[in-house]
Design brief:
By secondary structure, the chain is an alpha+beta fold. The chain has three helices and four strands. Helices cover 26% and strands 31% of the residues.
Length: 86
């Protein structure tokens, strides 16, 4: 499974307690979700596209099977970006 964040926009001026950003999540080359955070210390928001071939549960399973990769991605806030808020 190939996970990619594309079109990442970071607003440093608006980042207070957390990073203010928005990004698109692609799974195996297919746009799957829009991810964002307002930068005020709250959780990330994830809006999943309807009809995508991969589920949140499958991504969580992949993360469990690839702990070293998840640890690296976590330093880039990717792990937090996959919180399941809709």
């Amino acid at each position: 499974m190939k996970l990619e964040l594309k079109n990442v926009k970071h607003a440093e001026f608006a980042s207070q307690e957390t990073h203010c950003f928005e990004a698109k999540l692609y799974v195996d080359g297919v746009f799957s979700a829009q991810i964002s955070n307002e930068g005020r210390g709250g959780s990330n928001y994830v809006w999943w596209e309807k009809g995508v071939p991969i589920s949140e549960k499958q991504i969580e399973g992949w993360k469990r099977k690839n702990p070293k990769v998840t640890k690296i991605l976590n330093t880039m806030a990717f792990d937090k970006a996959l919180e399941l808020y809709q």
